[in-house]
């Protein structure tokens, strides 16, 4: 395996672990601290997707199961970005209470956590099916 591929896979998995791990934690705890983690999470999502895209274009894997995982990850990023981002924006504008923002962040994290679990299972299983 060429060194660039190893580096890309390492970056992909490291960023994915942070993204999914923080989503699982926030889903479990109900969203406190979600505001501070929003940018790092979105950054990790971007790195995961870009490195995943590079891996895809280099390895040319069979699309089936990996495609399901990649689609789930993209939807997870969309839900976190849209719902989480909107609630944080509205909280800063004073349009909603901190409790309401935390509820919306928790919903976004729970949906994303389920989708990211699906993404991880698909990514890990894809090599063997
Ligand atoms: C758009 C999103 C994604 C794309 C396009 C993508 C693409 C890929 C590709 C092409 C591989 C295969 C690399 C190889 O065969 O060497 C891979 C492996 C992997 N991906 Fe993703 N991925 C995405 C999201 C994620 C996410 C969100 C996670 C974790 C939260 C993740 C975790 C993994 C892991 C652990 C592997 C290694 C599997 C193994 O080598 O057994 N991926 N990904």
Strand percentage lies at under 5%
What are the distinct ligands in this entry? protoporphyrin IX containing FE
Order of helices and strands: HHHH
Low-confidence stretches: none
Largest sheet: none
Question: What is the number of strand segments?
Answer: 0
Mean pLDDT equals 95
Ends apart, CA distance between termini: 21 Å
Cα gyration radius (Å):
16 Å
Shape: elongated
What structural class is derived from the secondary structure elements? mainly alpha
Count of helix runs? 4
Q: Tell me the helix content.
A: over 70%
What's the arrangement of secondary structure elements?
Blueprint: H1 3-29, H2 34-59, H3 63-92, H4 98-126
Helix pairs in contact: 1-2, 1-4, 2-3, 3-4
This protein binds protoporphyrin IX containing FE (HEM).
Protoporphyrin IX containing FE binds next to α1, α2, α3 and α4.
């Amino acid at each position: 395996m060429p060194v660039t591929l190893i580096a890309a896979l390492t970056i992909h998995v490291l960023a994915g672990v942070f993204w999914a791990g923080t989503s699982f934690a926030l889903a479990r705890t109900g969203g406190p601290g979600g505001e501070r983690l929003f940018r790092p999470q979105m950054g990790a999502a971007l790195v995961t997707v870009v490195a995943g895209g590079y891996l895809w274009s280099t390895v040319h894997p069979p699309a089936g199961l990996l495609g399901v995982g990649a689609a789930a990850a993209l939807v997870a990023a969309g839900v976190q970005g849209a719902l989480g981002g909107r609630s944080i924006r509205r909280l800063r504008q004073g349009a909603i209470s901190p409790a309401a923002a935390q509820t919306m962040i928790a919903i976004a994290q729970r949906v994303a956590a389920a989708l990211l679990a699906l993404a991880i299972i698909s990514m890990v299983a894809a090599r063997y099916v």
